[in-house]
């Protein structure tokens, strides 16, 4: 186990680490065995495609979870496949992509471990780039195969032999003719294949053989041909990988002159004609950054270049050229931070070894930031390219926060009162969001930023403006980013307790006494939005729970902000927040338009402090629900008219059931009494709230999830003798010190789920089977909604249906096309002990009911849609869908981008981001089961296909989406409907003709 290349570090600290490790070892052995079998049997189709895809998924989820020996064997496997000269282009691209994945971590494999023959890749590069058959349609190349080739060669070139450079020159030099049409193709080959990162002892066999010659061509021949961009690509790469070993000083003037010309800027009254082939901005920036160091004149040339084009950065000087100019700033800062990171890594990469005298000094860093900051500040107010500029500002703040933060903060306070340029406020707040971590964090070189925290938080609150959604959106984003990196604890008393505080720390501690005022004002503004939005619409409009207005979009951010406050605040502050929210909600019966915002406040309280929240709020809500039930007419449950007050109580009740399972157990009897009373309610808004409560309850009881996202595991009420909260603001945590805490279902929680299913699911199924066709459309939809909510909540623990594998698929293969291993992440190895498999029971009952429904009530489209949704649940739902993983991953990446510091060591991040990544990896693993096509899934596919040609478009659309989802999930499953399609195509009846068209 200790000789693994680079396992996914987040899996190692998962509560299911042992299960994950064993599953990973078994799965890799299976992948390795089946890849070997495809080669032994000479069977590339479909075995190589299937098991290469599984290897890619394995690497993405487990990392390089294999030994160096196996790593090298995999690389050589795909190289050997590429040596087949008549290989199909599909497999060629597959091998390119696999080599790119396998060689992604250069430091894992050195030149001593691996040598790659460049001619294998060159053979395919020639065929792909000089393929005349493609022009005449005689061969179809896969999409993006040229991109796959370029990336693959880039990853392989560090492992070319020492004599490869001379061999490549001997091959391509005879074809070099700058005035010829093929010169661009030759330069492209050079940019692909020339090894630019050979070790210093081999430089005489590397760039020294060709650099002067190539630069003379670039310097002396000037035309607007694409080969010039290829040369810039070559120069930037060789400069980056050989920092300090190439003297660029004699060429510096020519380089920057050409760079300036490449921007194609309008001069005077003459408009510069855009070049047909402009230089690549990223490559130019990379080249410049690589030339900085050891008192090089590069920084001075860069400063002169920027001065000469300063006016073009002004937001009023509009033109297409601004895109390249602003991107130029971003790429300069990006590559500079990358270079600082690579030069100062604790474990340097063997392929990046700058000469020690050319490594960046602190003075170089300061000079670079001073050189660029003015132009970045100007570009922040360019509304078209603001996002690019603020990202550049983020990188500069990482390098020298003391040169960036004070200026941005000063501009912010000037922009607050600006009446003539309100957009400046939006731009500044966006910038502050991107540099939030540098503001809140104490570092040895800069801690002044913490003095701005409270003034900034308070000053932006007027930005929460119902009349300006853009301003509100960026303000909430800023508050969310700031508050997830600080603790809301009043530290003012620390100045009287500790004697080791600096003057800045004393000032910051005293300012934290304003946290309570800030939170109070924030909640007041949210309450005001809720009240105004609710009052703006009539009772008739409130009946539409799906009112799609911009106000609803602020709900996720408001919830996230309050959650960040609650989970990291002191007990006195939490009590005041809870009381304020309870007082507000108890006096409101909110319309559907604003329920999401208000219920989000409850959700934040529950997630941040479930014990205290349920202790005070759940009994009150249940009492209000019971009073409503006792004091209403007997028709309350059967009245289709929406009772706004009752529905609101049920919505809050549903949010409270998001608490941890162990906390919910305390209130089991109270919770069950509410479900007993209202599970049969027929009003649509009310039963949807009940269904949401069912899902929240069962998932809270049966699923595994993190329960603590705080910055550090500390007692927020601890005295300041032992710790000072402001010193923790924005600090990273080594992953081995995270101490993640996960909810693992206990036996009592599992029994609660079982009891709930017994009491509510089976009677509802029986009622639907007996009277489903006699029910009204609304009653039928209610019944299906409740059943589905129970399935969604409980399926996390329900195993797949055991069914016979379909054997008669036309798969010409001796290699298995599915994995025999399935991971089940369960700490206690417990499953719900149902007397039968719930998936099978629902497949049978709902399937039969759906057949009857389509036959007898084909116009009840909503019920049909709800019923057919069970098929996808039954076949592939185990707590989350793939699209849920994608959304979660997208949210994580956006948060990490805002707070990530590239200069931190590997495995060092904010604690809550590390825990979120751990949870994400667990969910990814839970969606990896792709079993063979069995008889149950075959029946599901048949049923979905028939519904896919239904006469109602809404039914067709849903059925087709689910059908294609299963086709992608289960290899070769599409074959089972081929005969049915052929049958329809052969039919001549008018009815069948209509079906064919859909």
UniProtKB/TrEMBL annotation:
It holds the Pfam family HEAT_PSME4_mid. One of its GO terms (molecular function) is proteasome binding. GO terms for biological process: proteasomal ubiquitin-independent protein catabolic process. Coiled coil: none annotated. Residues 302-771 form the Proteasome activator Blm10 middle HEAT repeats region domain. GO terms for cellular component: cytosol; nucleus. InterPro entries: ARM-like (IPR011989), ARM-type_fold (IPR016024), Blm10_mid (IPR032430), PSME4 (IPR035309). It comes from the Eukaryota. SUPFAM superfamilies: ARM repeat. This is Proteasome activator Blm10 middle HEAT repeats region domain-containing protein.
């Amino acid at each position: 186990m200790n000789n693994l290349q680079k396992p996914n570090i987040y899996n190692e600290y998962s509560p299911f680490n042992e299960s994950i490790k064993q599953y990973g070892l078994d799965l890799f052995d299976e992948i390795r065995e089946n890849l070997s079998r495809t080669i032994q049997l000479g069977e590339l189709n479909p075995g190589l495609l299937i098991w290469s895809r599984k290897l890619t998924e394995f690497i993405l989820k487990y990392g390089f979870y294999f030994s160096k020996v196996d790593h090298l064997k995999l690389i050589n496997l795909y190289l050997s496949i590429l040596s087949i000269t008549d290989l199909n282009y599909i497999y060629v691209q597959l091998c390119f992509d696999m080599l790119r994945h396998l060689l992604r971590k250069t430091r894992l494999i050195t030149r001593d471990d691996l040598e790659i023959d460049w001619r294998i890749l060159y053979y395919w590069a020639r065929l792909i780039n000089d393929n005349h058959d493609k022009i005449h349609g005689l061969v179809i190349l896969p999409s993006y195969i040229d991109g796959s080739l370029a990336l693959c060669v880039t990853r392989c070139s560090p492992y070319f032999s020492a004599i490869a450079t001379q061999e490549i020159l001997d091959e391509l030099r005879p074809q070099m003719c700058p005035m010829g049409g093929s010169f661009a193709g030759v330069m492209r080959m050079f940019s692909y294949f020339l090894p630019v990162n050979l070790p210093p002892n081999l430089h005489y066999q590397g760039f020294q053989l060709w650099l002067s010659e190539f630069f003379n061509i670039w310097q002396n021949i000037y035309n607007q041909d694409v080969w010039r961009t290829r040369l810039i690509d070559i120069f930037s790469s060789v400069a980056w990988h050989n920092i300090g070993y190439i003297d660029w000083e004699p060429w510096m003037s020519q380089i920057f002159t050409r760079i300036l010309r490449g921007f194609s800027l309008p001069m005077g009254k003459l408009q510069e004609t855009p070049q047909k082939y402009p230089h690549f901005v990223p490559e130019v920036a990379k080249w410049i950054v690589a030339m900085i160091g050891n008192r090089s004149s590069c920084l001075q040339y860069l400063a002169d270049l920027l001065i000469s084009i300063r006016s073009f950065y002004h937001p009023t000087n509009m033109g297409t050229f601004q895109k390249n100019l602003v991107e130029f700033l971003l790429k300069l800062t990006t590559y500079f931070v990358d270079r600082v990171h690579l030069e100062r890594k604790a474990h340097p990469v063997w392929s990046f070894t700058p000469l020690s005298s050319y490594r960046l000094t602190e003075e170089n860093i300061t000079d670079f930031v001073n050189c660029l900051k003015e132009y970045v500040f100007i570009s922040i107010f360019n509304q078209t390219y603001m996002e690019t500029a603020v990202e550049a500002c983020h990188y500069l703040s990482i390098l020298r926060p003391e040169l960036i933060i004070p200026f941005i903060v000063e501009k912010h306070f000037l922009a607050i009162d600006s009446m003539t340029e309100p957009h400046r406020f939006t731009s500044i707040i966006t910038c502050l969001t991107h540099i939030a971590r540098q503001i809140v964090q104490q570092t040895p070189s800069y801690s002044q930023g913490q003095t701005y925290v409270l003034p900034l938080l308070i000053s932006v609150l007027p930005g929460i403006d119902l009349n300006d959604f853009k301003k509100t959106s960026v303000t909430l984003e800023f508050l969310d980013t700031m508050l997830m990196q600080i603790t809301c604890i009043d530290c003012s008393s620390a100045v009287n307790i500790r004697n080791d505080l600096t003057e800045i720390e004393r000032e910051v501690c005293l300012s934290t006494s304003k946290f309570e005022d800030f939170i109070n004002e924030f909640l007041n503004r949210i309450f005001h939005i809720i009240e105004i939005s609710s009052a703006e619409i009539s009772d008739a409009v409130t009946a539409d729970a799906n009112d799609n207005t911009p106000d609803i979009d602020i709900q996720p951010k408001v919830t996230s902000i309050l959650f960040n406050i609650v989970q990291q605040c002191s007990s006195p502050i939490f009590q005041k927040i809870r009381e304020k929210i309870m007082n507000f909600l108890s006096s409101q019966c909110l319309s559907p338009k604003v329920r999401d915002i208000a219920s989000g406040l409850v959700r934040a309280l529950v997630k941040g402090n479930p014990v205290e929240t349920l202790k005070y709020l759940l009994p009150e809500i249940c009492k209000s629900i019971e009073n409503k039930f006792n004091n209403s007419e007997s028709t309350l449950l059967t009245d289709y008219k929406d009772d706004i007050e009752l529905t609101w109580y049920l919505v809050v009740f549903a949010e409270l059931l998001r608490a941890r399972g162990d906390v919910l157990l305390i209130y089991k009897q109270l919770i069950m009494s509410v479900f007993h009373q209202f599970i049969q309610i027929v009003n649509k808004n009310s039963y949807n709230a009940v269904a949401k409560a069912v899902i929240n309850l069962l998932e809270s009881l049966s699923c595994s999830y993190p329960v603590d996202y705080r910055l550090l595991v500390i007692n927020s009420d601890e005295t300041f003798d032992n710790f000072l909260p402001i010193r923790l603001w924005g600090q990273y945590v080594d992953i081995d010190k995270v101490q993640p805490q996960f909810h693992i279902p206990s036996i009592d929680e599992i029994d609660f789920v079982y009891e709930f299913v017994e009491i509510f699911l089976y009677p509802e199924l029986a009622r639907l089977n007996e009277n489903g066709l006699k029910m009204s459309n609304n009653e039928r939809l209610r019944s299906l909604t409740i059943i589905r909510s129970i399935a969604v909540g409980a399926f996390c623990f329900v195993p797949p249906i055991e069914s016979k594998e379909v054997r008669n698929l036309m798969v010409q293969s001796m290699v298995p096309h599915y994995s025999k291993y399935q991971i089940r992440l369960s700490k206690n190895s417990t499953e719900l002990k149902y007397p039968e498999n719930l998936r099978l029971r629902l497949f049978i009952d709902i399937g039969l009911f759906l057949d009857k429904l389509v036959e007898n009530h084909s116009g009840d489209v909503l019920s049909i849609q709800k019923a057919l949704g069970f098929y996808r649940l039954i076949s592939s739902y185990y707590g989350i869908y793939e699209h849920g993983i994608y959304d979660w991953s997208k949210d994580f990446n956006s948060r990490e981008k805002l707070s990530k510091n590239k200069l931190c060591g590997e495995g060092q991040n904010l604690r809550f981001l590390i825990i979120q990544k751990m949870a994400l990896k667990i969910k990814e693993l839970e969606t990896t089961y792709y079993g063979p096509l069995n008889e149950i899934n075959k029946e599901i596919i048949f049923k979905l296909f028939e519904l896919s040609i239904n006469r109602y478009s809404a039914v067709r659309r849903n059925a087709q989406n689910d059908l294609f989802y299963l086709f992608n999930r289960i290899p070769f499953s599409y074959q089972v409907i081929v005969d049915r399609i052929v049958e329809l195509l052969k039919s001549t009846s008018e009815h069948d003709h209509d079906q064919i068209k859909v």
